[in-house]
Description:
The complex is a heterodimer. Chain A is of the alpha+beta class. Chain A contains 14 helices and 12 strands.
Amino acid sequence: MASLAVTSYRKIIHIDMDAFYASVEQRDHPEYRGKPLVVGGLPQGRGGVVATASYEARNFGIRSAMSSKQALQLCPDAIFVKPRFEVYKEVSRKIREIFSRYTDLIEPLSLDEAYLDVTNDKLSVGSALEIARQIKAAIKDELALSASAGVSINKFVAKIASDINKPDGLTFIGPSSVKGFMEQLPVEKFFGVGKVTAAKMKGIGLFTGADLKRLSEEELVRHFGKSGHFYYQIVRGIDKREVQPHRETKSLAAEDTFATDLTSLKDMEAELERIASLVYERLQKKNLKGRTITLKIKYSDFKQITRNRSFPFPVWDLKTIVECAKQLLADTFQDEQKVRLLGISISNFGTPESMQKNAANSAQLKLF
Amino acid sequence: MRFIVSTSTLLKQLQAVNGASSSSTVLPILENFLFEIRDSILTISATDLQTSMTTSLAVESKEEGKIAIPSKILLETLKTLPDQPIAFNIDDSTFAIEINAGDGKYKLSGENGDDFPKIPTVEDASAVNLPASVLAEAINKTIFAVSSDELRPAMTGVFCQLTPQHFTFVSTDAHKLVRYRRMDAKSESAASFILPKKALTLLKSSLPSDDVNVSVEYNSTSAFFRFGNINLICRLIDERYPDYEAVIPQNNTNQLTLDRALFLNSLRRVVIFANKTTHQVRLKITGSELNISSEDIDFSNEAHERLSCQYEGDDMEIGFNARFLIEMLNNLSGEEVTLQMSTPNRAGLLIPQTNDEREDVLMLVMPVMLNSYA
């Protein structure tokens, strides 16, 4: 029976909560509803960044990862609140419980985002699109929150699809439309393409997936390094990455390429504070603590160095991350060097058990 | 070379010395037993170069010679054969071994016995004698506290001090320490050495249950134990043992005395609710009441138990790794035990309340610092 040569596609759903932290705050605090709300570092503090902006705040141009000071300038009336991660974690747990009614193949990307593989239809709903619809409805009914969903045949397309009709969107890109969809897709939507790579692509006349598709794999690799292999596959709608329920995070990073190169230590330190806040938010979001802090510096000549430091205990407070990154920067700083990129990553998370063991050994007193 | 022996007799002797053989990839011949026959006596040796064991038994043979026989295949064969005579035929030039047992015939290849490492002897040795039961008890009481930290080799063995007054056996892993003293074992001359854990483990399993005499000979590098037909020789750990007497606190004004079994069982229950890696339990003593508690915040687990006790001293609260306490209480005898303490950051001493004047047992455990002494 199985000899019929029918290509079977996977059914992947990407669910992305709409303005998650801000929506939870607006749900729990009626006084915030309908107002520009920013969850993240307070603008009075140093180096605070926007974790999530409500849709009202986004109308003013406020975006995630922007410094809170800048957000305040864009919208002086915005309400700033500190994130309540414990609450978000609990809500996230409830969302995952809803997912688990439909499938066991859940890959959480963070508190507010996950891939689901519903190829194996646990409740015999019959359609991935219908499953996505039911999940969205359950999140709305049970948690009073809205989510956007993308449904497709692989992770990459599903993720882009979930972003198309945000908020409260539901987008289906079936096997027959994947090809056309990828061709019309602007290059900056491709995974891993930041503003700098996007500018570079446009500089050589690549604006859409169709433009990328004209290049051979060798050409893509020559222009974009090893990411070229990925672009080559993905623009053809090929993404074989599986939904991994227990994917282990090995490192967590944030970095930024600057519009104009930085030359003064003071400017670099200010950027590091902002980048450290981003890393810190991401650590919180994933509930992780790491022992190694790595600073990445790319100079104007594209030469890149990394410097790292490991702590005997897991690091999780913003102050330590900032101070360590600044120290690593100071150790390498030389006058007249132009810096085009700074990044901070945290790694060496270890298992919680080994961390506890370290803690235990320090509390256990010794004879000799 | 040719000899005949009964399967059960041979198996018993092989199992007694097998622990000393090694699965060394560097020196594959260590995976063999050395068989040597002289005057109808078969001597079997096994070694890992650090520890060697030999045993001997009478066999039917008119010849002399030696051969190294692969230990694993021989043991497995003997274990599956019924008790019956078994004949070994060895080709002295090719080292081919043919075994005939009942209707079965088995062939394997051995190695030249001359290539087997020479089993060392102890020269210029001093000698003492002690009963197997005393040695077995000393090993049982101390071996659990031996360290496995290769970076501190001195602590990977049991420190033995022989004096004209008594023998003392000490083990520690830096968290806990045992000092086991025998008043009924004496040596005319004083001496001390560190016996490696492996040799003690082998001794423990091969010491006979009937109380034979064990002859111990030692020099500055090796120790030689002889009992029955078994010889064990081991290299001593050539390190300085830590000054253990200095870490035994002297003024322990807080003394808690309670039923050993009740204490042990309470700890066994409470530790189930403790953090799975720290095994931390909290002992809180007020008046004549002992509160044992634990918690695992990650899983919202907690346990509290109340035990009545005799207590002399100030009310206090101290944290311990319950596994250490359980191990120690398990290795103590006597109905009641006293826990002597001074302050929450200094060692606690566990002393059994027994009347046996032949032995003096002291166990010591370092506490865990509690985050709060609420």
